[in-house]
Specification:
It contains 4 helices and 14 strands. It has helices at about 10-15, 90-95, 105, 150-160, and strands at about 5, 25-30, 35, 50-55, 55-60, 75-85, 85-90, 110-120, 130-135, 140-145, 170, 180, 185-190, 195-200. The strands form 3 sheets. Strands 2-1-11-5-6-8-3 form a 7-stranded mixed beta sheet, covered by helices on one side. A 4-stranded antiparallel beta sheet has the order 10-9-13-14, with no helix packed on it. Strand 13 (about 185-190) and strand 14 form a beta hairpin.
Length: about 200
């Protein structure tokens, strides 16, 4: 399986990092070793002093597809969940300055914690889903899918132009504003609407 990630998909997050608004989705990948499941703790790596949380809705691909048309994209996933795209912001800044790839800052081990998955049929409107991240009981990130520059179906259509999607692949769909540094001892809890989806600690 592979992990496909969409960057700069929420305008307020683009603004908070002073990034340029893209004309098409920004896509990057993480390896399967980035996955962190079952509320296992995230061990803060020693190569960064500035690990940021980026809360995202995650799509689980349910069948093989390539060059998928937007109008058929909804047929390629049945479940959604939450994930964190952990980012070593200090490393990323250095890499971006030099025009180098982001992998060291984005794709390191355990940089992609994921929640349980729930049927997409649980939600009345996939274009209006609330989700949020609490750290130590305080809301840090809050988003709604209507704030996306590209919706789920548009993302699937775009990435399938370049990568054949396979059953079990995961797509991280972008983060809203509110990203910030995590510290050892923090407890992260993610919610889709009112449902708690994950709860884990930074160690």
């Amino acid at each position: 399986m592979k992990i496909l990630c969409i960057g700069r998909n929420y305008a307020e997050h683009i603004a908070e990092l002073n990034n340029e608004r893209p004309s098409e989705p920004v896509v990057f990948l993480k390896p399967d070793t980035a996955l962190l499941k079952d509320n296992e703790p995230f061990y803060h790596p020693d190569f960064s002093n500035d690990i940021h949380h980026e809360l995202e809705i995650v799509l689980k691909i349910s069948k093989v597809g390539k060059n998928i048309d937007v109008k058929f994209a909804h047929r390629y996933y049945e479940e959604i969940g939450l994930g964190i795209d952990f980012t070593a912001r200090d490393l990323q800044s250095k890499l971006k300055e030099k025009g180098l790839p982001w992998e060291k800052a984005k794709a390191f081990d355990s940089s992609a914690p994921i929640s349980k998955f729930v049927p997409k049929s649980n939600f009345e409107d996939l274009k209006k889903i609330n989700f949020q991240l609490e750290i130590n009981g305080e809301t840090r990130q809050k988003g709604n899918t209507e704030m996306m520059l590209w919706n789920f179906d548009e993302i699937i259509a775009e990435v399938s132009k370049y990568f054949t999607l396979k059953t079990g692949d995961l797509i991280f769909t972008g983060t809203p504003a509110g990203v910030s540094k995590v510290a050892i001892g923090d407890k992260l809890v993610g919610f889709l609407e009112e449902s708690e989806m994950f709860s884990f600690e930074i160690k």
